[in-house]
Specification:
homodimer, 132 residues, five-stranded mixed sheet, 48% helix, disordered C terminus
């Protein structure tokens, strides 16, 4: 299988990574996600990596790329379910996943996204008379 | 990886099948799901098979098993995202997935589960004096 399914859940997209992200798969995921955000107008992307036990700098870069790409389309990315060992490895590799939000599990990730969207909407409400 | 992650989303559990379900993986999934339903008190299980392009009688049986197992723990199972070719193959194999609910995508599957839970609750309210 050379595609990772992207599930739509209300205003969010959910991706569960269960296999090793080799080059083409990772690039496909980036393209698919950006297209889906554009098509659906999603406001957030949840990436579950609870099944990932090994992480390297490539994986870290892919997650950072996805977060940056979706952000320019007005969607925040939250990485959820990171195993403790993966967190240790990431930091030891010097990758702090800057620009990527993280949460313990999907539910908390979704709550985080809701807060982000909520605060954005308030901002828009407050300045409704301004052009954006 | 010999585990398929099970994500908790409110009263439901979500499983995305992305790899071929060989024997041990399928049995692990059954056990993990039943344990999770028991531990979390989940009322529904969503199994996304949108990444599955090949299905055989073993896969059909596993889905049927999961549905039966979760039902005795008071949780309904909905299989979502089935590809048209998979639906054709299943019926040609003579597997009609009896006892398994299906829906087009996760959102519709969740709506279906909400209805089921809702109608169950009403039933319990209406016939509170009956044993079920």
């Amino acid at each position: 299988m050379d595609k990772i399914p992207i599930l739509r859940m209300g205003p969010f997209l959910l991706v569960t990574i269960q296999v090793d992200l080799y080059d083409r798969l990772a690039l496909n995921l980036e393209t698919d996600l950006v297209n889906m955000v554009h098509k659906t107008g999603a406001r957030g992307v949840l990436i579950d990596i609870s099944a990932v036990s090994i992480v390297d700098s490539f994986m870290g870069r892919i997650l950072g790329n996805i977060a940056s790409m979706t952000r320019v389309l007005d969607a925040e990315t939250v990485v959820v379910g990171m195993q403790p060992a993966v967190a240790i490895t990431l930091i030891e590799l010097g990758l702090s996943l800057s620009g990527v939000y993280t949460a313990l599990d999907v539910e908390r990730g979704m709550a985080l996204l809701q807060t982000k969207i909520g605060s954005d909407d308030e901002l828009i409400d407050d300045d409704a008379d301004h052009t954006e």
